[in-house]
């Protein structure tokens, strides 16, 4: 049996599991990613032929491009799924995104700093490698966090009926934005690896990598989104108004075009894809076409993700964890159980009581905890490894791989029960709020008031 035949078998198995697993696991506290990684590990223990493309050092470019595709597909789906508007020129639309901004501007930098400090001071890594570890593990993953994210766009009559789940919205919007916003820190690691540590790096990094490329990426995404929305919904030519025909493959054209334009313009393509999806979603917001596009992106994301996880599982039992040591285990588990929960709680001030309909304390702690790590971390590591050999060591690959698998296991097991409990708590809080408002109204209307 040749290697290419095995790849087809693995791909076919992943596709089959992608079709049947969601329904099979819907009643259990087990996620599809958990099963795929487990199946992959079992396959890795069998007598598979030699020569499979599992070594991250030898197959870095393949890993980079495959994970890159998975992330941009997921970002398109996430952007289309969010119902809450965000308009650049309307500041009032920014306020309902408050928890998201706090997680991005407070929680994520603190998380990067903590992991970097552990990697440099405790694990003894060079500063560039420690920075990369912090940047690669910083973003929560839009790919593996479907169990704690919004289900999809509400269109038609549903659009104005149900209020959006605050916890799911926060986790979804954070995952959509922080993949691109973690990139400046990955670039900082690359700059330090090439030029060393020096204050002369800061003006270039802040001006171009931290600010300039972010703005360019967002602008490119908005431009592509507006052009495609005009064509799909308002073009004078009936043949171009694809929304009327329900041609949902425009989702794929949009994500590829937005990513390409963003990268060619020297911006962050991840941000361009998310901004494109959000911009397109803002046009004819209640149109059913958004749900059709989201369905295409979601299905493709599921297929690609499960294939990658199956291969990751095989790699785990075929040498990926050979360089893992106590330092890597401690950093990975520390990020999942300590660093992310504490930095997220600090960003959201989770110990404070929030007035309904704001996030309850339980929702804040849940949002702080569910920082799922996944495919994006592999992409950042593969990208940086292509820029500097110092940033592609076996230890980094082992540590990132272990952290992803640990996150898949921990968050996958806890997602269903925790989200159910938080939902019950929120319903109870809403009931108490309604009763209090009813009593207050009754007191005001009584004759003696």
TrEMBL record:
Subcellular compartments: Cell membrane
Keywords tagged on the record: Antiport, Ion transport, Membrane, Transmembrane, Transmembrane helix, Transport
Primary location: membrane
Residue ranges, annotated region (Disordered): 430-449
TM helices/strands, residue ranges: 6-25, 61-82, 103-123, 181-202, 214-233, 253-280, 300-317, 329-351, 363-383, 395-416
InterPro entries, alphabetized: Cation/H_exchanger_TM (IPR006153)
Topological type in the membrane: Multi-pass membrane protein
Domain spans labelled Cation/H+ exchanger transmembrane: 17-420
Protein's name in the database: Cation:proton antiporter
Source species: Nocardioides oceani
């Amino acid at each position: 049996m040749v290697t290419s035949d095995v790849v087809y078998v693995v791909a076919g198995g992943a596709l089959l599991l992608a079709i049947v697993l969601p329904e099979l696991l819907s009643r259990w506290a087990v996620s599809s990613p958990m099963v795929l990684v487990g199946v992959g590990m079992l396959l890795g223990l069998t007598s598979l032929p030699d020569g499979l493309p599992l070594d991250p050092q030898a197959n870095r470019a393949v890993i980079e491009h495959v994970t890159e595709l998975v992330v941009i597909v997921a970002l398109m789906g996430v952007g289309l799924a969010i119902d809450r508007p965000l308009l650049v020129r309307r500041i009032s639309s920014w306020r309902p995104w408050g928890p998201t901004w706090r997680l991005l501007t407070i929680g994520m930098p603190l998380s990067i700093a903590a992991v970097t400090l552990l990697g440099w001071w405790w694990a003894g890594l060079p500063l560039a490698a420690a920075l990369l570890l912090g940047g690669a593990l910083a973003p929560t993953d839009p790919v593996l966090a479907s169990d704690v994210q919004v289900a999809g766009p509400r269109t038609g009559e549903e659009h104005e009926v149900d209020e959006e789940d605050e916890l799911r919205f926060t986790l979804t919007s954070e995952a959509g934005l922080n993949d691109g916003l973690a990139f400046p820190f990955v670039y900082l690691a690359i700059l330090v690896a090439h030029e060393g540590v020096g204050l002369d790096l800061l003006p270039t990094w802040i001006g171009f990598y931290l600010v300039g490329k972010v703005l360019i990426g967002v602008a490119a995404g908005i431009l592509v989104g507006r052009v495609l929305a005009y064509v799909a919904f308002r073009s004078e030519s009936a043949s171009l108004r694809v929304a009327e025909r329900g041609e949902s493959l425009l989702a794929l054209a949009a994500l590829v075009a937005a990513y390409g334009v963003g990268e060619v313009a020297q911006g962050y393509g991840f941000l361009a894809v998310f901004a494109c999806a959000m911009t397109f979603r803002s046009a004819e917001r209640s149109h059913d076409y958004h749900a059709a596009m989201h369905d295409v992106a979601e299905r493709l994301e599921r297929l690609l993700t499960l294939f990658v996880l199956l291969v990751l599982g095989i790699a785990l039992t075929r040498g990926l964890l050979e360089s893992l040591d106590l330092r890597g285990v401690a950093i990975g588990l520390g990020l999942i159980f300590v660093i992310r929960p504490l930095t997220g709680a600090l960003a959201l001030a989770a110990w404070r009581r929030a007035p309904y309909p704001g996030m309850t304390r339980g929702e804040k702690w849940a949002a702080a905890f569910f920082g799922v790590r996944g495919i994006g971390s592999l992409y950042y590591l593969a990208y940086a490894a292509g820029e500097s050999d110092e940033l592609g060591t076996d230890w980094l690959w082992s540590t990132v791989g272990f952290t992803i698998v640990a996150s898949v296991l921990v968050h996958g097991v806890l997602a269903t029960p925790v989200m159910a409990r938080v939902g019950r708590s929120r319903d109870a809080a809403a009931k108490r709020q309604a009763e209090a408002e009813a009593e207050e109204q009754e007191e005001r209307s009584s004759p003696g008031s």
